[in-house]
Amino acid sequence: MSEASLLPSPRERATAPSRPAARPARGEPAPAAELRNVTKRFGAVTALDDVSLEARPGEVLAVLGPNGAGKTTAISCMLGLLQPTHGSARLFGGSPRAASARMRVGAMLQISGVPETLTVREHLSSFAVYYPAPLGVDAALDLAGLTAVADRQYGKLSGGQKQRLHFALAMIGDPDLLFLDEPTTGLDVASRRAFWSQVRGFLGGPSTTQRTVVLTTHYLEEADALADRVVVIDKGRVLVEGTPAEIKRRAAGRRVRLVTALPLERVRAIPGVSQAERAGAATTLLTSDAEAVVKQLMRLDPDLTDLEVTGAGLEEAFLALTHTETDR
Amino acid sequence: MISTATPTATRQPKRNLLALYLTEARFEFLKLLRVPMYSFSVLAFPVLFYVLFGAIYGGNETQGIQVARYMVATFSAAGVLSAAMFGFGVGVATERGQGWMRLKRVSPMPPLAYFAAKMIMALLFATLAVITLTLVALLTGLVRLEPLDWLRMYGVAMLGVFPFAALGLAVGYLFGPNSAPMVLNLLFTPLAFASGLWVPVEVLPPIVQQVAVYLPTYHYAQLVVSTTGATALGAVSTHLLVLAGTTVAFLALAAWAYFRDEGKTYG
Predict the structure, then answer these.
(1) Cβ contact, residue pair B27, A118, below 8 Å
(2) Do residue B267 and residue A131 have CB atoms under 8 angstroms apart?
(3) What is the tens place of the pLDDT at every residue in B135-158?
(4) I need a surface site. Which of A55, A116, A124, A208 has the fewest CB within 10 A?
(5) Residue at B70 is within a domain
(6) Which DSSP category does A6 fall into?
(7) What architecture (CATH level 2) is domain A254-311?
(8) In this complex, is the C-beta atom of A48 within 8 Å of any C-beta atom belonging to chain B?
(9) Which residues, 6+ apart, have CB-to-CB distance to A78 below 8 Å?
(10) What average pLDDT does the segment A29-51 reach?
(11) CATH hierarchy code of domain A3-249
């Protein structure tokens, strides 16, 4: 795994949403990136609602959430591209717009492209001069697996190669803090796995720098593959935070569908049921422990029919998480 | 793997700012040179028009000088106008639309480097346009140009880069990558025509002549024409004032659009 995971493991916790981020204790280094009680509104739309999160030096933090959850807005605030409506964003304890901070940051943003008529090598050379101690262009080409197409113009690259150049542009400054905003969206499974191993390669080198990574994704699998810690956000709010294992356990929801004579209230009261609703004759419920719930259902209503258990999608897992949180 | 990584605290090396600006300009040049539409329309159109109109009207006179000589001045101005407007406008709109600008803004690139590179390129392509046209004019033998007269014309023609680059910049920030080229064409063609860049103002319909005096390109054209020994229309000081005002106005509009971007495009 990554070098970062060999460092003292971050405090394992699953906090309630919207708790102000703890201020660093004396002697503890400032977070590499931090949002403190950030609210961001675009007109009537609230993209972030009192969000606090921090990436501690040396960790890989995944911000996990469905589309439209506010992940990109969060990253844009951290990077100083957006000014929070309320609250503050910091990089290395200072302003995200300071040149000194930007020299230590690399970013892979969701962009549709870079100028098409420059080659891969030219693009990397043009970015390398922005940084005081960049990686060599050849080293970056090698890391991103682009050596073979180094002299090809950007417009003639495949989708995967373009994505890898965006990654190489993020790495070229040899950053202490790397932002990856949905880096594998649109890639097939094989390319996605290849990308993960490139990220691990970048983190796992014999570098003495403690690299920090902030990754946004809507793939639980991606957060699991790369992150030390996961923050789940939805509709602009932090739902839950924990290690990938904790999140996986809590998000491993099942959807149970059945036709039963039991009143909805009785179904909801079964331990482990996070949500239940009825549409026509069918009752649908979400649970993190399908086996126990089904056993209980069979006991309460031996005449139930049309029983169906399916894996809940991530969106439903998020719903389950929300409910678990508010029930407590 | 990478041997260049060093602990943050010991990171002493400084960036070479001169190299940074030069690199930015070099790649901006390569980028544009490899876009045939841009190089062609900036460099070739004035020449084509000169060969076409020069053969027909070159021997006539306008504003007291030979039409061919007049055309060298106004077609140079047209080349400068398109180099500045399209180089800035299309480039900025496209790079903004792609998200390339966001990536640049997040990087430690000094924002000035981006605009300086585009400015240097606009000046360079404008120069190439004037030189290409001059060579064709000399080779076709319609006019004779004294080196000092040419230098004076060239120097004044370059003044046009500033106001019209500012115009291009404003369009680049106000419009998206798909509409910006169209908007620029819709501005460029009537501006160039009504201001006497293609055909002398004198021969335009009176109504167009009346409108022309309100166009910054008209004042620019008269300023360039005044270097040829022709009797330019209007006072030089007025022309200069209009160009300076145009520059400031469009820079202000571009700045407004730039800040409006935050929260919209960058959401």
Answers:
(1) yes
(2) no
(3) 999 998 888 888 999 999 999 999
(4) A208
(5) yes
(6) G
(7) 2-Layer Sandwich (3.30)
(8) no
(9) A33, A34, A35, A89, A91, A96, A179, A214
(10) 92
(11) 3.40.50.300
